[in-house]
Structures are given as C-alpha cells and as structure tokens.
Design brief:
Elements (H helix, E strand, L loop, with lengths): L42 H18 L6 E6 L1 H13 L5 E5 L2 H14 L3 E5 L16 E5 L1 E2 L4 E2 L14 E4 L16 E5 L10 E6 L1 H9 L13 E2 L2 E2 L14 H16 L2 H21 L4 E3 L11 E6 L7 H14 L16 E4 L6 H20 L1
Parallel strand pairs: 2-3, 2-4, 4-7, 7-8
Antiparallel strand pairs: 1-9, 5-6, 8-9, 10-11, 12-13, 13-14
C-alpha cells in the first residue's frame, strides 16, 4: 500500500505531558531580570516570589482568604506535604483511576497507615465521586495525567462537608475551571499547563485546611521540609514568598514570564479555550479514523490537557510494541516528541494539549500520526 508522506511539520513538535511545551513567546533572553546570585530572602527575591503567588491567585481566581505557597519538590512535594500534615484526624476516602492517584493511595495505606476506604476505577474510567463519604477526608486527582480522564464537575462535593478535600490538580490548573469552594487543598506544579520548569510545587489552602493545621497534630513526626505550622500557628511567611527552602530564582522568573503570557491570551478562560481547541482537533481526527480511539470512555470525562489514545486495529498483534514503534517514527521525523503512553498506563499515545501548545501544531502533527500508523502496519 502506497503511503503519502506529509510535507509540513509542526513548528514545535513538543507534545510531552511534563515538562510541557513552553509558551509560544518563550525566549531565554526574557529571563534576564532574574535576581541571580542574590539571596531569595533579599527584597528583590521576596518580591518576585510574592508576585508569583499573587499573579497565580489573579489568573486562577483563588479567593482572597485562601493561602498560596511555593513549596519544594514539584506537585509531588506539595501533595505529600498536605497528606502528611493534614490526614489522620478522621478517616480518608482514597480515590484513584490512574497511576498518580494510586501513588497517593499507597502513601495513605502503607506509609501513614490511617483509617481509610479505597475507591478505584480502571484506566479510561472514573470513580463515582457522588458515592464518597465527604464527612471523611477525600484525596483525589482532578485530572488523571496518565489516563486522560478528569472530574467533569465539582457539583457533587457538598458545601457542608465535614472532611477536607485534597485535590491534586497538577495537569488541570490553568486549563480547567476549579471550584475553589469545593477544594480545601489544591496542588500543582509549574511544569504542566504553563510549561514552567520542574522542582517547584504550589500549595493552596482553604480556611478550613488552615484551621485543621492549627488544631491537629499528626501522630507521626514531620521533616522540616513538610512543616507548615509552628507553635500551633500557620507559618504565614511561606504564603508570602518566604519559602521553606531555597527556590531557583531563574525558575521563578520563568514562571512569571509564563504567567504574563497567560494574561496576554485572556487569562484562565483564554487558556481553557486554547486547550479545548487543541483537543477538538484530535477529536475530529479520532472521529474520522476507525483505528484509534480515546482511552477515556465517557466524553464528559475526557481531559483537555493529557489526551490519551489507544489503537484498536485487529491487525496489531502486540499493542505495546506497536504504540512504541509509532511514537518512535514520529520522534525520528521530528513530528511529535515524547508522546508514548505513561509506563503504567495501557499501551497507546499521550498527546499534551494544554494552552502553551498551538492548535496549528496539533493539526500539522495529525497527518504524521496517520503516516506513522500506516507505515508501522505495513512493516
């Protein structure tokens, strides 16, 4: 069978799900004002960190009475900090439908060993969030980065809940509307939707979460890097730019550049629209090609950032080997980089569609996806 090789390539073939593509306006020279070689506790450093916090609040619409802190170790560090500092006061509902959520289950069950109930769903599906006991603490991911499945709405979370909701929103923040009144702890990292650099996490606490911190002491010891209180009071400086450990001011400058770009494209709603347009282009492709489909079963729960696909052609004998070979062909042609499925997920592809990706690049990549599929089938 003759295969037509596409002629046009994406201007930016970076579709990795983390670290993700930089904003289209990215230029290293724009980081020149970073206060390098200065203490992060000096006035310029503290001002930059506070600017990062307050601009995050502005774009995401975080309520004024919520605390936002920059913490170590990316989203993982932020979520671990929340779990180890807050859980144990009451039983926990541990929710997982993909690998990162499963990691939080492991921490609660095997490390913290708290009273718990585990709720899981297979890749491509989601737990019934309305069936949870919200008088307990609830730990979940808003968007399953490795499954392409997201929570469709926070409406089922009761306003009068007695427990706290701990939400890992790392591939959702800046691409989805997050209902802040339903979220007591929210975490994410710079390296996802805004294409920032790795190693820095964001921790957002509701007044209810702060109250828990100040009135509950976990049964286990906390390392210094996890401590959010001192003498029964919140260490407020953490949420004003006085970080627990030394941050990279170059990474902070990089994040500020991304935040400025986000405002230039319409803020949160502009970023959501860009992600939706990218996902719509892939949806059109899937709808017209019968050999590929979404991993997410229900269209209402399909992610608009980490879009996961699987091949369903009967001629494919080894799904994992086939998907890996297709991803390699695309990378070798510089048409799409780093789009293989996550190692623990079902065989397939994962294409990042967050707002820093241009829809024109998605559209230019898709003919190459068809070419790689046909070439590998023929092979």
């Amino acid at each position: 069978m003759a295969i037509t090789t596409p002629t046009a390539r994406p201007t930016n073939p970076r579709f990795s799900s983390g670290p993700c593509a930089k904003p289209p306006v990215y230029d290293l020279t724009k980081l020149a004002s970073a206060p390098l070689g200065r203490s992060h506790r000096a006035a310029p450093g503290k001002a930059k960190l506070l600017e990062a916090i307050e601009t995050t609040r502005e774009i995401l619409g975080v309520p004024d009475d919520y605390k936002i802190g920059i913490v170590p170790a990316s989203d993982t560090g932020a979520y671990e900090m929340a779990m180890w500092s807050l859980l144990g006061e009451r039983p926990a509902e541990m929710v997982a439908w993909e690998s990162f959520g499963a990691g939080w289950v492991t921490d609660a069950v095997k490390q913290l060993k708290i009273e718990h109930t585990v709720h899981t769903a297979d890749y491509g599906q989601i737990v019934d969030m309305s069936a949870l006991n919200y008088d307990n603490d609830v730990c979940f991911t808003w968007n399953g980065t490795t499954s392409g499945v997201r929570v469709p709405t926070g409406d089922v979370i009761p306003a009068d809940r007695k427990g706290l909701t701990l939400c890992d929103a790392t591939s959702a923040a800046f691409a989805m509307d997050l209902p802040w009144d339903k979220l007591d702890v929210t975490t994410f990292s710079w390296q996802k939707v805004l294409g920032g650099e790795a190693a820095h996490g964001m921790l957002i606490l509701s007044p209810r979460a702060v109250e828990r911190l100040e009135n509950y002491t976990p049964a286990w010891p906390l390392p210094k890097i996890f401590r959010l209180t001192k003498g029964g009071k919140l260490i407020d400086g953490i949420f004003k730019g006085e970080t627990i450990n030394t941050p990279s001011m170059l990474c902070v400058e990089d994040y500020l550049l991304a935040l400025d770009w986000a405002k230039s494209v319409g803020g949160l709603q502009g970023l959501i629209a860009r992600a939706d347009a990218n996902t719509a282009a892939i949806t059109d492709f899937v709808d017209t090609h019968d050999w590929i489909e979404f991993l997410a079963v229900d269209p209402a729960t399909r992610s608009n950032t980490s879009v996961c696909l699987k091949f369903n052609d009967d001629r494919i004998a080894d799904g994992a080997a086939f998907a890996k070979a297709v991803a390699k062909r695309l990378a070798d042609e510089d048409a799409a980089l780093d789009i293989g499925a996550y190692r623990d997920a079902p065989a397939g592809l994962r294409i990042w569609c967050g707002g820093t990706v241009e829809t024109s690049d998605i559209q230019a990549m898709l003919p190459w996806l068809e070419w790689a599929f046909e070439a590998e089938i023929n092979a």
